[in-house]
Amino acid sequence: SSLMTSTTEHPNAQIAPFKNEVVKSFDDPGDAAAMREALARVKQRLGAEYPLIIDGRRIGDTEPAYIIAELGGNHGGSVELATTMIRAAALAGASAVKFQKRENATLYTQALLNAPYENENSYGPTYGAHRAALELSPAQLAICQATARANLVTCFATAFDEPSADILMELGMPAIKIASGSLTDTALLRHVAAFQQPVILS
Q: 37: how many CB neighbours lie within 10 A of its CB?
């Protein structure tokens, strides 16, 4: 089902009243103390044991470990390899598999995209071609989601930009991961926060 549900319907709805308290501290990304204080207030109100819920699975200090298999771009752009990796992760006992989604044109300069990138790990003659080769299309990600469901693991992805976050939501992914390099990307953080869906930041 679609993730675009109201906060009253979502299992993490209790967090919604405190969202603005945390997000407003993004006005000054350098004010780490304000962020810590806001998060501490939210945690105090919700209770230390309040769990995060992703795809119906409770995640918290008193819950079993939630194991995420990072598939990233290791599929090399092959949906066949991606689905094989999903099945292997499920057999290994993973709780979830995670991919990455990015719109390269929004992240890199044209000069970088056109730069030669020929080495043993390259998937194309330029960096742009290399990055493009590693991207799974929305249709391919949907195939990965179906494979994950069939193997009883959750499938979600890291969004590196706003268009990618929109694609993940349109696919109905139950959570979004924010990469460490995006922790000061306030535009992306605000965009993702507006979905009012589970987010993992690290």
A: 14
Decide: 83 and 41 in contact? Cβ < 8 Å. Answer: no
Q: Yes or no: say if 154 and 54 are a contact pair by the CB < 8 Å rule.
A: yes
Distances (CA, A) of 19 to 22, 26, 38, 70: 6, 11, 10, 28
d(CA 143, CA 99): 13
What's CA 130's distance to the chain center, in Å?
A: 22
Whole-model pTM: value is 0.77
Secondary structure (H, E, C), the chain: CCCCCCCCCCCCHHHHHHHHHHHHHHHCCCCHHHHHHHHHHHHHHHCCCCCEEECCEEECCCCCCCCEEEEECCCCCCHHHHHHHHHHHHHCCCCEEEEEECCHHHHCCHHHHHCECCCCCCCCCEHHHHHHHCCCCHHHHHHHHHHHHHCCCEEEEEECCHHHHHHHHHCCCCCEEECHHHCCCHHHHHHHHCCCCCEEEC
Beta bridge partners of 154: 96
Q: What is the mean pLDDT of residues 93-113?
A: 95
| Tokens matching residue 131 | 């990055």
Read off the pLDDT of residues 12-64 as tens digits, 9 standing for 90 and up. Answer: 555 555 555 555 555 555 666 776 777 777 667 665 556 789 999 999 888 89
Q: For residue 64, what are its two tokens?
A: 């079993």
- Beta-carbon contacts of residue 120 (< 8 Å; ≥ 6 apart): none
